[in-house]
Amino acid sequence: MADRELRRMHRAELIEIIYALKQSEDQLKAQNAALTAQLQDRQLRLESAGSIAQAALELNNVFAAAQAAADDYLHSVQASLADTNATAANTLSQARSEAKRILEQAQADADSLKAQTRQECSAMVEQAQQECDAMTAAAAQKRTQTEADCKAMVERAEQEVQQRWQAFDHKANELLDQYRSTDGLPSEET
Asked: Can you give the pTM of this predicted structure?
């Protein structure tokens, strides 16, 4: 495995690989110990058999068994590494897909919220404008009504003043006429 691939792996993945390698190492040590025991046993047989050819054949069997065990271990490690790499790539792909989906959902939610907020703000502005227009129209109508009422009151007041003035003038003339007739004052005509 390249250094670059190892550096990109997460700590948990590296620990799993180390753990698998340690287990394989322990198995190989156990196999090595067993094979060493077999080898010693065969050496005893070889010594007891006394035949170098027979010892060589038995030794070849031991080496063949050791080579087969080493080959099995190597294939096991390579298969484990391939499975680990495939799992890591699959997990990374799923995480990227999920992140992309979450981002797309968040963007869609944000766009929806923006549109809803704009719509609510537009409705509030429109309602405020309508209320303002209604208040302005009511104020204008009230002003017109107040002006009309004021004008009518001024006209009534002017009429009342004129009527009172006429009544006062009439009474003053009557009093003057009475006073002239009783005192012998000269009339206004002379």
From this structure: 0.35
